[in-house]
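Final report, closing paragraph on structural work. Over the funding period we assembled a curated collection of sequence-structure pairs, and we close with a single example.
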Amino acid sequence: MKTLVPPAWDLGGLRAEAADAAALIGRSLLTRTAAALLAFDLAFVLVHLLEWSGAVASSERLRIDKDRSASEYYEYAKLSLAFLLLLLLIVRDRLFYLGPMLAVMLYLIIDNSLQVHEHVGAWALPELSAGGEAIYLVLIGAAVFVLAAASARRVDRHGRVVMGSFLMVLSVLGFFGIFVDALHSLLDNDFPASERILGFVEDLGELVSISALLLICLLHLRGPRPATGAPPI
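Its predicted structure, as stored:
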């Protein structure tokens, strides 16, 4: 029986699939939709910097690093839309191997709304909640990669490229949401000046990463298979 998985030693094939997945992400960022979406991101960043510099009246609702701010609700909207688009893609094209990606998006929506990882971190390591948060989120990420790897064994090259494009974007989002967030929390007490800088870097990364996630969902929903290229979105 012919296997759909390249041999474990075929590193060249794996690199080629990773390159194709990265190319898809790059293609999704070079569209009119991407320009409009990233312009909105930039607008929130500029407003944040204006508030930071004192050029406008101080308000936490204008900052991208604060809960319940305008940019956070904007992130919720983008993430929710990405979830719905991916769900539509899975149901329409029967791409059930993307189930782990859908589960991650649902978790992110719930976590952002209920601050799940903060509560778990404080419960697991009361003396070092940032460490508890990081460990918890790393475990969640590891579970996702294990499920994705299991799914990848049942799909063809195109399926692995599609999955790889989602994993790459989610990995970037995880870098800012886990590691930068943990560093931010660890340095908060000893280096108060870093609070706003690292908070800004963390939320800026998340803001742009979620836009990339939405764009890759749009690309796969509306575009052809990777081998044929993708039309303007």
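The chain has one domain: 29-228. Helices lie at 11-29, 32-53, 70-93, 99-114, 116-124, 129-152, 157-188, 194-222. We thank the funder for supporting this effort.
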